[in-house]
Amino acid sequence: MNEQLIEKIIAGDQQAFRIIVDTYKQPLVSYLTYQTKDEELAKDIAQETFIKCYEYLPKFKGGSFKAWLFRIAINHLIDFKRTHKEDATPLEETPSLCTPESVLIAKEQKELLQQCLTTLDDKTRQIFILKYASNCTYEEIAETLHIPITEVRNRLYRTKTRLRKSKLKGVLNGELLID
């Protein structure tokens, strides 16, 4: 993130902060939706994340801004889960105007992906979601989760190999899940 942009935000320039929100809202909500399985809850947590980001921006010490922002989101999500003990039930998604067949196929693929994700340990699931739902780089994932980049690469490789074996093929946010 541009240091000048951060300085403008700290000085009170709301338009500069709008740039941050516009840039990171979609990847953050995607990540949180996969973690919570509830898009409205994900949007609420993303909103809280941006509020905390604005509040703590003077304490940002450099490095990857995206990783720092996602770390705030992850911490807020952990706090939320602790206080709500998984009370929230996901809302049913309303399908877009597609053919019934394509809606059914997409729903089946999403359910299969969700089943596969539930079999992963928490850290591996976070790595996978950060990579494919939020388009984070390996470096950003490593910085966000405070792990070595080699661990990110290894976990993603093993997860993709496992998904290939389970014959899970599909598209997530326009990207092929497995090669």
Any descriptors?
single chain; 179 residues; mainly alpha; two-stranded antiparallel ribbon; 2 strands; 69% helix; disordered C terminus
Distance between the termini: 31 Å
Q: Using DSSP, what is the number of strands?
A: 2
Task: State the shape.
Answer: globular
Q: Name the structural class.
A: mainly alpha
- The total count of helices amounts to 8
Strand order of the largest sheet: 1-2
What helical percentage do the residues reach? 55-70%
Task: Describe this protein's structure.
By secondary structure, the chain is mainly α. Helices cover 69% and strands 2% of the residues. The protein is built from eight helices and two strands, in the order ααααααααββ. It has helices at 3-10, 14-36, 39-56, 65-84, 100-118, 122-132, 138-145, 149-165; strands spanning 171-172, 175-176. Strands 1-2 form a two-stranded antiparallel sheet. Helix 1 packs across helix 2. It is globular and about 50 Å long. Residues 88-97 and 168-179 have low confidence and may be disordered.
Quick description:
This protein is mainly alpha-helical and 179 residues long. Helix content is 69%, strand content 2%. Helix 1 packs across helix 2 and helix 2 packs across helix 3 (39-56).
Structural topology:
Blueprint: H1 3-10, H2 14-36, H3 39-56, H4 65-84, H5 100-118, H6 122-132, H7 138-145, H8 149-165, E1 171-172, E2 175-176
Antiparallel strand pairs: 1-2
Helix pairs in contact: 1-2, 2-3, 3-4, 4-7, 7-8
